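Page 42, continued from yesterday. The earlier attempt failed because a stray header line got pasted into the input along with the sequence. Redoing it now with the clean sequence only.
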Amino acid sequence: MALPVPHPGLVISYSYLWAEEHDRGREEGVKDRPCAVVIARRVAEDKTIVTVVPVTHAPPADPKAALEIPPALKAHLGLDTQRSWIVLSEYNEFLWPGPDVRPVASGADSFSYGVLPPGFFRQMRERLLSLIEARRVQHVRRTE
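This time it went through. Structure tokens are written below.
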């Protein structure tokens, strides 16, 4: 099973560790979930640091800190039909691929759901950057 090359907009299956779980001492995410790659930066010949934001069904407490995924995009990615949001108030950063990148489903031979369209990705990135500038984003570094 080949891993995809990480790049901005790629949606992967990942065991996301929420900032509040990390603050309580957890080191592993509770469940695997779709996550969007925001940045993939090569720091050495064989090392890439990847930044991901999570997808959730839970409506955001602050609508400005999330971006709802349109139904057509969810269908394109093969996600369920429930409303979902990309959470932009926090992110995980890890060394690719790391132990937390997972197959999209049990027995699946893929680690990714697909790629976000450029316009949607730009909207997500711009909202995330504005939250970072306002210092309203938590970050969990998974790779020490």
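Notes: The first strand starts at residue 10 and ends at 15.
Reminder to self: strip header lines before submitting.
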